[in-house]
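Hi team, as promised in this morning's meeting, here are the two structures we talked about. I've kept the exact order from the run log so nobody has to guess. The first one is mostly here for context; it's the second one we should focus on when we meet again. Sequence first, then the predicted structure tokens.
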Amino acid sequence: MADLSPMPSAVEAAELVRRGEVSARELVSTCLERVEAEQARLNAFVHLDADGAFAAADRVDVARRAGDDLPPLAGVPFGVKDLEDCAGMPTRRGSNWYADAGPAVRDDLHVARFRAAGAIPIGKTATPEFGAWGYTASPLTGVTRNPWNPERTPGGSSGGTAAAVSAGAIPFGTASDGGGSIRGPGASCGLPGLKPTYGRVPTFGVTRFAQNAVNFALATTVADTALLFDLAVGPDARDRTSLPPPGIRYVDAIEQLDVSGLRATWSADLGFVVVDPEVERITSAAAAALIAAAGMHTSDTEVRLDDYIGIYVKIEGADRFVDAPPWWADRLGELDPLSAGGWPVTAKVALPRFAEVERQRRELELRIAEIFEHTDVLLTPTNACAPFAAEGPMPTEIGGRACHGGHAALLTMLANVVNLPAITLPAGVTADGLPIGLMVTAPRHREDVCLRLARIWEQAAPWPRHAPTA
């Protein structure tokens, strides 16, 4: 049996299985053991399906011994965020409303594509109620913690996946991003994390009116991220918003795309976000180093936006009632008090008010388009502050300055509101040893630029694959 400590990347794990150096059953067993060993400390998983995982692993092992061609992720275990359906497992959304949910009857589209590539789902990872917060805690499943420091949050809403991957319990896991829920946890746990252009990864309808939320994954390396993206992208007839095939292989783009000469703009705060000074220092230095490593040119394009939290809240609420249970108004008392109030408020938004929000959104889109006429990539911190208390709430003071609770996630929200691809990269750690992320935002549909720059940064400033052990 090959050495599985530390946990191999998804690409490495698949190669170990393909060469027969480790069996899929051994991989699954190792992941389940590590999940259970870390559960009391991190609370990263909310459901495990050991029987289903071992059965799938045995099928992979039989196929390998028979000499069959194996798909690219054959035998690689993964976790599925508990906002997403995985056939045979319940989807509880971190909410008491769905505490008694039965097993899902089908996979979400990206889950199905990873499974078709041979990957093996072992369970569901924690999320805050309905994925609403930048930390991962819910009345149903409790508090999920950061492996770098269990007193701090792994971020949200893909905090369970980020914690499990960063702790070395699984090679990768699924994640979704409606306001930063891939990138925020990635930054908080020292991982790269790609938020694609809306429609690049098809869904059964994560959002349709707002078109702010996307499904994808979190892993430890850029090679893993590129391979997973290659497997996840492409149209599906069941998603009217899905994009056509990108026409490239991202595993090739991370090594071959020429990004020298691109214009890069650094903005610490987009002109209005309250950012911790230590975070700004770390990410500013990382941005300068990335520009140099990639051979880019620094642009002095001014980025000065107004606070768009009002636009985000209203557009995000547009899809709230698409899948709402008919009894929602009668059971608000079962919800996290922080999220319960949003339901009746959103229900009162009339069409003229929503149209005004859409007009404001279009104005922001035009402003961002003007900025990208003068720059090719936008570099910012990922999160405005270091990971805060695991129990929450979102901070209302950052770096000694008062702010509203959305500021911790405002930098990531921009890409969701105006539909741009963006990736977080590990930029360093604070004096307290907490991970900080640098975010690269590119023009619409240019995930290849994000991933190529991520690969250059990975080579120039390698990051630890997993959180330091206690």
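And here is the second protein, the one for discussion:
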Amino acid sequence: MNGTYVDLLSRLRRGEVDFVLIGGFACIVQGASQSTIDVDVCCDFTPRNLLRLQKAISDLHPVHRMTPRRLPLELTEENATAFKNLYLDTDLGQLDCIGYVQGLGDYRAIEPLCEIIELEGMRIRVLNRDALITSKKAMNRDKDQQTIRELEGIKNIERRGS
């Protein structure tokens, strides 16, 4: 596993951030062979949780990746309610915090669609394969087609093995 990604997730866990691993790294954890350049998580976008997120990664110099001036992450109780997604660059790499997963819903909707996986000694919540497939299909991007086939193949192999 990519140590940088594990380090980012470990910081979120230690910071008691409510999140579920989604996206490319979740697909890798679920057995797909794709590559990814970031960690995608679906977060509870309450001010309390976002402030925990900020505290957990503050020493990594997080900046808003999608802003022209790459502004530093400076959340307050008041401005945290304005965010729906956070696309961050940190000293450990890119961290995308998503408030709504296409085809599935927000954090509360996807919580029941995850499973707990042990990853390098840490227990994290990861979208299950069915939810990942649903999400990838809803995004309908060319780059997701191979991942969908792989995840469906893994499901079929496991079903035959049961």
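Starting points for discussion:
The mean pLDDT is 94.
The CA atoms of residues 42 and 98 lie 5 Å apart.
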